[in-house]
Amino acid sequence: MGSVIIGSGKSLPERVVTNDELGQIVDTTDEWIVPRTGIHTRHIAVHETGTDLGAQASARALGLEAGGWLREETIDPASIDMIICPTLTADAHFPSQAALIRERIGAVNAVCFDMSCACSGCVYGTSTADMLLLASATDRAAADTAGRSPRRNVLRRILVVATERLSRLVDWTERETCILFGDGAGAVVMEWRDDADGMLSSYMENTDDADRVLWCDSAFCDRPLPFSAASEDAAAAAAALTCDPYMRMAGQAVFKFATSAMVRCIGEALDRAGLAPADITLFAPHQANERIIRYAAKKMDLPMERFQVSIDHMGNVSGASALIALNEALTEGKLKQGDVACMAGFGGGLTAGACVFRI
Q: N or C: which terminal CB in the chain sees fewer CB atoms within 10 Å?
């Protein structure tokens, strides 16, 4: 018994930005970017909102639009009991991004909340869904035995949808970061089943970012209050603002963290599942940098063919990237029912994790 993925979907914005186009706004070239990152193009949401992208990825995961992957048949949105949305770029502080997607897709019975866990959202979201589905199944079993009603919300299906517009946080004059990121959304529908094992294990961790190697201030962190002395002078108040609206990254430090975290978290998840790297049909890692994926493959003594690489056409889409990579592996037929896959994520927080599941 376990949490089984029964649907998967993705959404990428219409606008594709090439490396040559970036070379027109910052000092870079395609020849400089590709060897360092593996990125050729990325999608940028010029018109699409986070809700647009998340709703389309969700609709495809439910089978309401073409382009998704379904285990069996179309999924009724009303059957979704909860929506979890890992995101850094929600359309509003509230309602939650999950609630906005709920309204758009007609998931009228879903309880909704967002998660802030950066590029690990793929793992944190699906692992949280797995734990909640297990808790609900245990509660229902205890209620049946005692002849009473369940004490908590009944959860049988959870939609995990990560939607990101990192283009809104990128400083487009900073070459080291603007070349890396793209926009998009990825989604999976997870269902508790008594006759299938689904998710086999998960592992999550946090490391203090004491040196602020990967950071983005809140947009209102330095907004003056009417109770401060500076508020008496509008010019002085404006000059006092120190909030940086863009994400900042110490590239070498983040690369060192990412390579170590990816291998370590995959190892922990595999140990918990009682499996070895050779037992995994395909790895769907966070698409941060192709060099990080190649490093992990080398450390685990595996060929690159065992890793889904999608960064070349989408860039780093934060918590959505591994879910998009998983969707592409499923729709391309690289993963079939009965195969075992591993998803890994690492990012700001500093967060990291991995999960192992049977398709």
A: N
Which one is catalytic: 316, 327, 342, 355?
Answer: 316
Tokens 């993925």 belong to residue: 5
Q: Is 47 a catalytic residue?
A: no
**316 is known as an active-site residue:** yes
- Rounded Cα distance between 163 and 138, Å, is 31
Q: Which of 85, 117, 119, 216 is catalytic?
A: 119
Q: Residue 323 and residue 320: Cα distance in Å, rounded?
A: 5
Tell me the pLDDT tens digit for each residue of 179-195.
999 999 999 999 999 98
pTM value surpassing 0.85: yes
The span from the CA of 357 to the CA of 198, in Å, is 5
Q: Are 346 and 119 in contact (CB under 8 A)?
A: yes
Both tokens assigned to 106: 């007609």
Residue from 19, 216, 286, 342 carrying the catalytic annotation: 286
Compute the distance between CA of residue 127 and CA of residue 44 in angstroms, rounded to an integer. Answer: 28
Residue 286 annotated in active site: yes
Between CA 184 and CA 11 the distance in angstroms is 6
Q: How many CB atoms lie within 10 A of CB 142?
A: 12
CATH superfamily of 2-209+250-358: Thiolase/Chalcone synthase (3.40.47.10)
